[in-house]
Amino acid sequence: MSTATYAGTPVEVDDEGFMTDPDQWNEQIAEQIAAENEIDQLTERHWMVINYMRESYLEDGSAPSIRTLGKASGVPIKELYQLFPKGPAKRAAKIAGIPKPRGCI
After folding, report:
1. For the chain, is the Cβ count within 10 Å smaller at the N or the C terminus?
2. Contacts of 101 (CB under 8 A, 6+ apart)
């Protein structure tokens, strides 16, 4: 494990850059991670997905799959790919400060 600094805060991350302690996360960190992942501005729709990802992880201990995310977050799968290009579940999880979802490459 290593440490990354987001919004002036050092956080523990795994080898792929996913935060290992969701309690270290805050919205400023999310905004910086989003910018580093080619998402210039987090809209209300982004936050719907991010908040759903966090809530789901904190309740179940695992991030939702893309299929579950599309059904339960209120954002259809097609839109998820527009909001979080190049792997919506993986990018949304990284921005949400939770570990990479199972099944993501």
Report:
1. C
2. 62, 63, 64, 65, 66, 89, 90, 93
Q: DSSP state, 80?
A: H
Residue ranges and CATH numbers for the domains of the chain are 2-96 (1.10.10.370)
What is the rounded CA–CA span in Å between residue 100 and residue 103?
9
How is residue 50 written in tokens?
């991010």
Sign of CA dihedral 105, 68, 99, 19: positive
Give the span between the Cα atoms of 36 and 22, in whole angstroms: 19
Mean predicted lDDT score pLDDT of the chain: 92
pTM here is 0.92
Q: 46-93 pLDDT, tens per residue?
A: 999 999 999 999 998 988 888 889 999 999 999 999 999 988 999 999
